[in-house]
Amino acid sequence: MPFYITGGVECVRRVLLQSALRLTEVLKEREAQIELKRLRETSVCGDNKETQAKLRADYEESLCIAQQEIQQARNAKIKCVEFQKAQYETVLCFSPIVHQVIDACFLQDLAV
Description:
about 85% helix, mainly alpha, single chain, elongated
């Protein structure tokens, strides 16, 4: 009797879809970089205040978005750590020393 993986095709499709989405994001980022480079070159050639203001606004916006993404990832990691810590505390009864060791390990994970 042959062995079949259920959901194997779905798994492959999901991986391909995720790869395509990542490629799309990379291409969009590359297009934005090219546009930014073009705007910088035109700005350097002349003292165009509007172009410089647009560049500054675009840079600040992208910086803000990147900071928000970092904060969201950190918040998700903190939620996960708190959930795991709650599981440890509810399932197992540890001594206070073991609690300190677990807290130190979770804090070390957050630092990464």
